[in-house]
What does this fold into?
Amino acid sequence: MENAVSFSGSSALITGGLGFIGSNLAIRLAENGASVTVVDSLIPEYGGLLKNIAPVADKVRVNISDVRDVFSLAYLVRGHDFLFNLAGQTSHLDSMLNPFTDLEINCRAQLALLETCRKENPQIKIVFASTRQIYGKPAYLPVDEKHLVRPVDVNGVNKMAGESYHILYNNVYNLRACALRLTNTYGPRMRIKDARQTFVGIWIRHALESRPFEVWGGNQLRDFNFVDDVVDALLQAALAPHSSGKIYNLGSSEVISLKELAEVILKICPGASYAVRPFPAERKSIDIGDYYSDYALAGKELNWNPRVNLASGLAKTVDYFRARLQDYV
Amino acid sequence: MENAVSFSGSSALITGGLGFIGSNLAIRLAENGASVTVVDSLIPEYGGLLKNIAPVADKVRVNISDVRDVFSLAYLVRGHDFLFNLAGQTSHLDSMLNPFTDLEINCRAQLALLETCRKENPQIKIVFASTRQIYGKPAYLPVDEKHLVRPVDVNGVNKMAGESYHILYNNVYNLRACALRLTNTYGPRMRIKDARQTFVGIWIRHALESRPFEVWGGNQLRDFNFVDDVVDALLQAALAPHSSGKIYNLGSSEVISLKELAEVILKICPGASYAVRPFPAERKSIDIGDYYSDYALAGKELNWNPRVNLASGLAKTVDYFRARLQDYV
It folds into this structure.
């Protein structure tokens, strides 16, 4: 990213900073001379792993605490220029089984963190990782930011509320906060142990273990972002002064069906195979059919466009996990 | 309402049932032969008053408990045909001062109540009282249900989440739930002690006490519903089988500026007067400018149209409070 140099000498706090996207962001920031603190709860079912930040372990300050812990956050937010607010419960199915846990993390803790920033560090610029999940089943494609939000699971409702608090605190209290609605993100350091973060994770695990992975349905269209592109977007959103109060879709013009995606993985992974299965009943009620984004607004206002195509991003991802499968399974 | 007879012999639970709209609904249902249980916390800053249900005190079962009290609700939801879910924190300003209280009531307790219904009474039909507040500052007028929700205060975010949980539980768990987005509602039994529920309340109190009331700004356009019309809508939404999973705006075609509304009150109340004041600073950031609804969908699908015009509704309201001012101030 052209702007990476701008972070040299700055100080950034990353919630969920040992997780998939957070750790990739921490590495990029640290390598570009930023002072980085990562906060992570290391809850085993979530995405955080200490090994994720191995390349910058000596440069990054690690603080193990949960975003629900308002006391630790009140101390930790002080003195930073940027807050990348990435901590979250990401499993849609878990949000239905434990709706109050999801509410505490994705809704209440977000409100608490904003109250904390308002009191302890009103100068901080906040970038919130929201999700395309809050759109629910698209009424039209590609989905732009004018599309109604109609979440189809508890996770979606709580992420929607968490995002809204950010925009609200920007508008009412002159905090500077913006939100990126991420689409399916994949890449090194994603959770591959199970499908809690993304189904692509479990596919790649199975492919590397030469076990068939399951494709549910298969004809659904999706767009995917390689994590480096998402890191670009987070950084550009943090720097763009006019991003405050705004919501931006991320996305990709490379729209692909799940079956086609499976075929791409087959080409990269010798020994991989898959089986197409009907959608499981408990998932069907929260499925959204086809989804892909219109991300023209991020293109225009953040000067952001994804640069890594799916074949090359997936190849990098598979290479990463092939070399350290035991750390992730 | 033509359908009132349909409630004879049915059983209804009303959360917030001693409050403004809840008590008017309880009276209507009881008078039409329904078995009615009202649940209310009687928190002094909210709208509940035992005297509100005086006309049907011997017919209605009163249970004092808070919607945050999941244990009492687990018992209370059993055996009813209808749940009118009206309990809420309504003050926008209080929601900014005590955001977590608002979250607990308007967001978390709603999720808990739906979980409770799912387990204890999955047959119940739920009508949720949502609010036009969640639209925020209108992008166009009149505002229909296709308008984006962009709440401008913590109350709006939490009501938005509360509403979404209802639609979600309808869609995922086959609970039957719908939501009405109420606009400014006024009438007998509203809170007039202060502006926590509606500014019309404090205006009428001052008018009856021959003290000038304050009109902030004055040119903002609004629509208003008399409470009897809102009770009609709640009942019709409860009965309409195709309402489940739907969201309906309420509203009025009688669009009026606040200054014009003040003039109507002056005509009804001899001795009333008002002063126009600039918008207070702490309110300005959460003001939404002009608002009025497109309620054609409720007209079409619920066969609902407001029937009481503003002059006659306000006259009834003033008569009500004139006769029992001491009970309400």
Summary: The domain at 8-328 of chain A is CATH 3.40.50.720 (Rossmann fold). The longest helix of chain A spans residues 99-120. Chain A touches chain B through 30 residues (CB under 8 Å). The first strand of chain A starts at residue 11 and ends at 15.
